[in-house]
Amino acid sequence: MRDRCDLSRIFRFPAADICGYAIEPMKGYCSVRRTTLVLTAFVFLAHAASASATNPAAVPPMGWNSWNHFAGKVDDADVRAAADAMVSSGMKAAGYVYVNIDDTWEGQRDAQGFIHPNSKFPDMKALADYVHSKGLKLGIYSSPGPRTCAGYPGSYGHEQQDAQTYADWGIDYLKYDLCSFDGIMRKQAPNNLEQQNQLMIAAYRRMHDALAATGRPIVFSLCQYGRDDVWKWGASVGGNLWRTTGDINDTYQRMADIGFNQLGRAEYAGPGHWNDPDMLEVGNGGMTYDEYKTHMSLWAILAAPLLAGNDLSQMSAQTLSILTNRDVIAIDQDPLGEQGSRAFAVGMTEIWTRPLVHGALAVGLFNRDQGAHSITLDLHAIGFPPHATLRDLWAHQDVSAANGRYTAIVPPHGVVMLKVTR
Ligand code: GLA
C-alpha cells in the first residue's frame, strides 16, 4: 500500500519538491523536521489543490471530439461508443476525459426560447449521465451567431438560456465557434474592423459570464480561427483554450502547416489558458505512422489540448499506441504549463524544445523532408552538460550522447522525441 506521506501521489509533485527533506515516511506517517516549512507547504498546496479543483484546465484538456471523423453524422450512439471505447481502450487511464459533441446536435428552440437537441440526440441529460457514469465529462458546441458553421441554431440572443440549459444537462465543456457571428459583426460595424473585433470579444465574454453564472465549472473553448490575435485576449474573456488557426485536416501538409507555425504564441499559454492548434487527426487514415507520431509529438511540445478526432470504437493498435504514449502525454501535461518553441532549424529539419518541471527539457527532432535526415542535438546548445540523461519517448528507452552530441536518423516527415534531464 502506498505510504500516506507520499504527497506526490496526492498533489502530482515529487515529495522532494514539496518539502525538501522535511517529510520522511515513517511507519506510514510523516516525520516532521521543519514544521514551519511544512505548514507553509501545506497552505500552498491546499491553495494549489483548490485552484485545480476550480480550474478544470490547469493542464491542457484531453479527450475526444466528434468533428474530425463523424462531422455532421454524429449521433447519441456514436458519442456513447466513444465514451465506452475511451474507457475500454485505456485512453481514460492515460488521461483522456472529455467526450465532446461538435456541431449538428442542435434542434429547435421552444416557445420560451430554450434549445432542444435534434432527433440524433433524443435525451442530452441522459447522455451526460451516461458519460459521467464512466468517470468522463461531456462537451458540447455552439456559436455566438444565430447559426453554427453547419447551419444549426446558435446561441445569439439566448446566451444565458443556453448556458443554463448546458449546466442543467450536466455539460462540462463548451466549444464556442464564431461562424455566423462574423455576419453580425459586419452588419453592426460596417467597414470598421476594430469595432467588429470589439463585438466579437464582447460576445465571447458574454457567454463566459453566462456560463460562470450557472455555477457549474465548464471549460470554455474559443473557436474563431485565431482572429485578432486571440491569444492576446482569450484569457481575459475567460477562455481556457482558443483555436489559433483555421481547420486542420487529415494530411501531413495541413497538420505541419499548422503545427510548425505556432511560433510567437508560447508566452500566452499557461495553466488555465492554452493555445489550441485544433484537434488531433491521429488514426483517421490520411497520414503515415511517422506523420501521426510527428502530430502527437508536436502537439505535446506545443502544450496543445489533446482531443482525439478519430473513431475510438475502431482503433488500430498502432493508433492507440500513439494516442496513449504516456511519455509523450506527460510532456503535454507537464504542470509547468510552458509551451515549447523552435530552437533550431536547418533546411527541412527543426529542433523544438519545451521546458518542463525540475529543469528538464522536451526535445523534438523533426524532419519535414520527404527523405530521411540525420539530426544532431548538441546538449551544450540547449544548456545541458555532456553527461545529461536522454530518453527516447517513442522507443521508450534511454539513449546516450557521445561527447555531448546525440545524433538520430529521423525518417521522412518523422520525429525523434527526447526528454533531457540533468
Ligand atoms: C468550424 C470549426 C470546426 C468544426 C466546424 C463545425 O469549421 O472550426 O472545428 O467545429 O466548424 O461546423
| Gyration radius from CA atoms, angstroms | 23 Å
Low-pLDDT ranges: 1-53
Strand order of the largest sheet: 11-10-9-8-7-4-3-12
Q: Percent of residues in helical segments?
A: 25-40%
Task: Tell me the strand percentage band.
Answer: 15-25%
The number of helices is 13
Account of the 3D structure:
The protein has 13 helices and 20 strands. With 422 residues, the chain is of the alpha/beta class. It has an eight-stranded parallel beta sheet. The protein has a six-stranded antiparallel beta sheet with strand order 13-14-15-20-17-18, with helices on one face. Helix 11 runs parallel beside helix 12 and helix 11 runs parallel beside helix 13. The longest helix has 22 residues, at 193-214. The protein starts with 6 loop residues before the first helix and ends with a strand. It binds alpha-D-galactopyranose. Alpha-D-galactopyranose is lined by residues 67, 102-103, 148-150, 177, 223, 247.
Describe the secondary-structure layout.
Blueprint: H1 7-11, H2 15-19, E1 23-26, E2 29-32, H3 35-54, E3 62-65, H4 67-70, H5 76-88, E4 98-100, E5 106-109, E6 115-117, H6 124-133, E7 137-142, H7 159-169, E8 173-177, H8 181-188, H9 193-214, E9 219-223, E10 241-243, H10 252-259, E11 274-276, H11 289-301, E12 306-308, H12 317-323, H13 326-332, E13 341-346, E14 349-355, E15 361-367, E16 373-378, E17 389-392, E18 397-399, E19 405-410, E20 415-421
Parallel strand pairs: 3-4, 3-12, 4-7, 7-8, 8-9, 9-10, 10-11
Antiparallel strand pairs: 1-2, 5-6, 13-14, 14-15, 15-20, 16-19, 17-18, 17-20
Helix pairs in contact: 5-6, 7-9, 8-9, 10-11, 11-12, 11-13
